[in-house]
Amino acid sequence: MASLNGTFDATEVAPAVPLEVLPPGKYLAHLIESEMLPTKAGDGQYLKLVFEVLEGPAARRKIFDQLNLVNRNEQTVEIAQRTLSAICHAVGQVHVSDSEQLHFKPLIVTLKVKPAGNDKSGIYREARNEVAGYSAASAGASGGVAPRPAAAVPRATPAAPPAGTRPGAAATPPWRRNG
């Protein structure tokens, strides 16, 4: 039992309603939270990202992503690094030593909807949003959903590193920091 420090009157507060998945499309958003966390297996780390939609009917809704930057699987790390690169390029911050350098800078987040069904483990999951890519805010968003073709850098498509970038040019990257 927990005391509520007085009497709560539910007639004075609108009840919470379940949030539906956002329709697939492009959303103007900015990164509001980021944190390096250990993987469930404890043998790697991922960068947890929380974006907030800035305009349209979905304004103030949150979009979540995670980048497995420390992992035994090299392909997983490569995909995460390419995604982080897409975010960096989208916000115009190509040399970062801390993920907070990416916060509060507008970019376009392209979402898709993963349908409800059993996942790889056989566990049933409700439909949910999944980030398909990131692009510069100048690519545009139209009230949350844009009908034009995506200009986002796809998450899982390998691409050559941008010209003029040097590995190790910045201080210790956030996925290699301790603590």
Secondary-structure topology with pairs:
Blueprint (H helix, E strand, L loop, with lengths): L24 E14 L6 E9 L8 E9 L3 H18 L15 E8 L2 E2 L5 E2 L2 E9 L16 E2 L25
Antiparallel strand pairs: 1-2, 1-4, 2-3, 4-7, 5-6, 7-8
Q: Please, how many helices?
A: 1
Give me the secondary-structure category. Answer: mainly beta
> Got a strand count?
8
Uncertain segments are 142-170
So what's the oligomer here? single chain
| Biggest sheet strand line-up | 3-2-1-4-7-8
Query: What is the radius of gyration?
Result: 19 Å
Proportion of residues in helical segments: 10-25%
Shape type? globular
Cα(first) to Cα(last) distance is 36 Å
Largest sheet: 6 strands, antiparallel
Kindly state the mean pLDDT as a whole number?
Answer: 84
Strand content: 25-35%
User: What's the SSE pattern?
Assistant: EEEHEEEEE
Describe it for me?
This protein has 179 residues and is mainly beta. Helix content is 10%, strand content 31%. The protein is built from 1 helix and 8 strands. The strands form 2 sheets. Strands 3-2-1-4-7-8 form a 6-stranded antiparallel beta sheet, covered by helices on one side. Strand 2 (45-53) and strand 3 (62-70) form a beta hairpin.
Task: Give a quick precis of the structure.
This protein has 179 residues and is mainly beta.
Overview features:
two-stranded antiparallel ribbon, 8 strands, 10% helix, single chain, 179 residues, 6-stranded antiparallel beta sheet, mainly beta
